[in-house]
Each structure stands twice: as C-alpha cells, then as structure tokens.
Amino acid sequence: MSGFLIAAREDFSDTTFLLEVHHPAMARAAKPGQFVIVMTHAQGERIPLTIADFDREKGIVTLVIQAVGKTTREMRDLCQAGTELYGLVGPMGEPSHIGDARKVICVGGGLGVAPIFPQARGFKESGAYVIGVVGFRNRDLVFWEDKFRACCDELIICTDDGSAGIKGLVTEGIRMAVEQHPDIDEVVAIGPPIMMRACVETTRPLGIKTMVSLNPIMVDGTGMCGGCRVKIGDKIKFACVDGPDFDGHEVDFDDLMNRLRRFKEDEKLAIERWSENCRQKALAETADGR
Question: 226-254, pLDDT tens digit by residue?
Fold first, then answer.
C-alpha cells in the first residue's frame, strides 16, 4: 500500500462522517488546534481539514468531514474503511495554546463540535475545569456526547428545536455557563464564522478572553496562496501559518465573511460539474450492464 489506510468510518448523518486514518507519526506529533492537508486521489484537490482526534497508542488520526463541497462530497462517496487516502500531510498550523486557565468554556457549533474536542481534552489534562457547549440543529445530529462527558466537568447541549439539551444557539449555552460560573478565564469557540462571531459578541461585554479558529478561510494550508489572509486588529495575518487560532475580539469578521463569499459561484459550478459527471458515469455503467 502506498497511501494512508482508512481504518474505520462512521456516518453521523447524510452529510457528516468520520474517518480514522492510520498514520502513527502524525498521531504522535498532533496537538489540539492543528490541521492536515488531504488528497483523496492523485487528481484530487488539496483540502485542509482540522484534526478532530488522535490516538498516539493506536497511531490513528481522526477527521470529521461535512460533505458540502465537490471534494468533500467525493470523499463521502469514495472513502470507506479499507481504502486509502492518496495524500495526508501534517500536522500543520500553530497548536492551540493550552495555558494555565483554571476554568474554560469550549464551544463547538455544527462541524466545529469535532475539532473543539481535542481542545476540551487538552484543557482538562492541564488541570482546568472544563465546560463544554456544543450545538446542533436537532437530536438526530448529535454525536460524541459520551466523549465530551468524559473530558468535561459540565456539558451543555444546545439544539435549534430543543429536541436535545436546551433550545437555542450555543450563545445561550455560554450565557448559562457564565451565569453559573462568573470566574470563567477563557472561552474557545470553533464553528462557522457567523457562530464564532456571535460567541465573540456574547463575551466581549463580559471581558472574557475568547479564542476562535479561522479554519474556514484556509485554502492551500501553506500561506503561499494568500487566500487565508485575515485582519487581526491592525495587522494582517495568515490563518494557516499564523493560526488558525486568534483572539476573537481582534478578528475583523466583516472582512472574513466577505472573503469567504468570493468563491461561492466557483464552488457551485464545481459541484454541478462533478454531479453531472457522476450522473453520466452511472448512466454508462447501467448501459454496460444491459
């Protein structure tokens, strides 16, 4: 085998799935907050994915992927247990700073639930009191509850429809935690930019340090393409080499979200072309079967 073996796969929903990839060297080196660059096959796109978990003893790196773009949809169809990833490079990016905070809130929304797990575990291992706040649309999409309860002193699950935990966004979970624990030292939030922005605006008036992960804007993962340029206070940074973690109160979210919209049409066309190619291939295979 010349690639990287997918040791296991688990599907959380029609779009969200987990891959456990055998890569002992990467599992030994990985730290919370870091990411990898993945290629499904030789002609595939290079995409950055945050490391959701790592097991140093088993030599396993875990990725949780949401099939929203052309490449991640392709991965959903092709990546099964026993197959291989063509390329897997990392760990990349600056590891999250797990300092001497005594009490922290680790917030994950949507796909951000997976990468917040190593952060929560890291803080717990450092001796902090950890409050997990994780958000989903509904009960059917909840995953890793047991894993979070194992490393969090408290866990607040938020769902849009109230079918699990409390009804509301993760910001409601933050407010609930702060009301019960006015001595919070730090909040770490990972998820869609609009969610991270809401978390930042919730903690700003409270003066609580809030770190966010700007993974959504990364492209090539090396800093050379410039696609991950972000405004942090009065400075320009690159999410993939200077981050991905930044002080959320310093992030220019207006600029970040405008930049994310730049390639919407290109992404739409790529999905349409891929879907049409899949349709034509299926028709050809059906015809051959006749």
Answer: 667 788 888 888 877 777 889 999 988 88
Are residue 209 and residue 123 in the same domain, yes or no?
yes
The CA distance from 120 to 106, in Å, is 6
Q: Number of structural domains, the chain?
A: 2
Question: Would 273 be classed as within a structural domain?
Answer: no
Query: CB atoms < 10 A from the CB of 5, how many?
Result: 15
Say yes or no: 127 and 245 in one domain.
yes
CB atoms within 10 A of CB 91: 20
Give residue 234's pLDDT: 86
Largest interatomic CA distance in the chain: 70
Domain range for residue 256? Answer: 103-262
Residue 269 counted as domain residue: no
Distances in whole angstroms, Cα of residue 135 to Cα of each of 58, 109, 141, 260: 29, 5, 10, 22
Domain boundary among 92, 117, 134: 92
Tell me which residues of the chain have a pLDDT lower than 70: 1-2, 216-227, 260-272, 274-290
Strands 103-109 and 129-136: parallel
Q: Is 21 helix (H, G, I), strand (E, B) or coil?
A: strand
* Residue 135 is assigned to a structural domain of this protein: yes
Determine the pLDDT at residue 49: 87
- Rg of the chain over Cα atoms, rounded to whole angstroms, equals 19
